[in-house]
Amino acid sequence: MCAHKFEYVMTIDEIKSISILQWLRNNNYGEGIRKGKNYFFCSPLRSERTPSFAVNTTENLWCDFGNTYKNGGNIINLVEQLNPTWSEHQVLSFLERQVRDLKLDFNEDYNARIEEEEAKKRWIEGKRAEREEQLNQETVIERIIPLSHPYLRDYVIQRRIDYGVAQRFCKEVHYSLRGKHYYAIAFMNVAGGMEARNKLNKRCIGKKSISAIYPRETPQKHCCVFEGFFDMLTYATIEAWMPGIDVCVEMPCDFFVLNGVGEVRELLPYLKEYDSIHCYLDNDEAGRTATKTIVKSYPDAAVDESHRYKGYNDLNDCLAGIK
Q1: pLDDT average, residue stretch 141-167
Q2: Is the pLDDT reported for residue 68 higher than 70?
Q3: Among 43, 122, 266, 317, which is least packed by CB within 10 angstroms?
């Protein structure tokens, strides 16, 4: 489990954005002498009395002016030169551990960009929630029944999900909106709402929230976290019919579905009782960010399992590629 824990949590750009100035200070290389935009240190790469190792805090780069070849670069280059026998994996894992253990910051420009992206994401999620609330006020649920509609069955099979698995975990909802009637696969959440999905449309009916599933009826010591319910159904299908494929973990697990990465904060309290937390989130920026949030909250238990479907955006895409 530990071999996977630090390999996939942070992106290369995030690691490069670790503050070199703070890293040097926290690793006992001194405070540095400020000269303009640069801080000068005695070089960590060799012995010297007059500081000639410069750190540009604006660019977050270093340069060793006392070296004949003027070595320089980012934080990864520095750790590589300090530990020439280390592999790339060892360097990246070391820096990720240092971020956690020393509480290192990112460079200011990187932090500002992340904050701007987070603000934009919150605005989009707010507008989406407003639209869903308006639709919910106009939605009339007619009935919720066992999953049986032939068109929904065909849709499940097209996604390569075992239909029996889908029937076990999903319902079928019929509802009307603005005088028109619809039907969809219904996947219930902990707030009494549901994700409604058919081949042409997907939406949330009722309050948006996470879903908690206990396949063995009683809580287990381990759990898996998925971004969407089709990924959970994919996992259950592979677990039932393809045990020889290295996708599922070996121990029995409870399942949690975010139903959107915006719900990751709501999920965190549910995870505190588990010995291991296996994250099967999407291989994109949003999925990696959500995984990072979980791993940061439970560093001794959470494992990023996205390497099991490397090359695919999500677990269901991986299933489509399995012959």
Answers
A1: 96
A2: no
A3: 122
Sign of CA dihedral 106, 108, 112, 113: negative
pLDDT tens readout for residues 205-256: 998 999 999 998 889 999 999 999 999 999 999 999 987 788 999 899 999 9
The pairing of strands 276-280 and 222-226 is parallel
Name the residue with tokens 């910051």: 105
CA 176 and chain centroid, separation: 35
Spatial neighbors of 214 by CB under 8 A, at least 6 apart, are 220, 254, 255
Question: How far apart are the C-alpha atoms of 33 and 55, rounded to whole Å?
Answer: 10
For residues 39 and 274, give the distance between their C-alpha atoms in angstroms, rounded to a whole number. Answer: 45
The helix (H) or strand (E) run that includes residue 197 is: strand 194-197
**DSSP-derived secondary structure letter, 106:** B
- Quick count: other Cβ atoms within 10 Å of Cβ 64? 22
Question: In Å, what is the CA distance from 27 to each residue of 23, 98, 188, 281?
Answer: 6, 10, 49, 34
pLDDT in tens, 104-140: 877 767 666 667 777 777 777 777 777 777 777 778 9
Within the chain, what is the greatest distance between any pair of CA atoms?
82
Q: Which two tokens stand for residue 226?
A: 């998925």
pTM here is 0.62
Q: Which residue has the tokens 């320089």?
A: 72
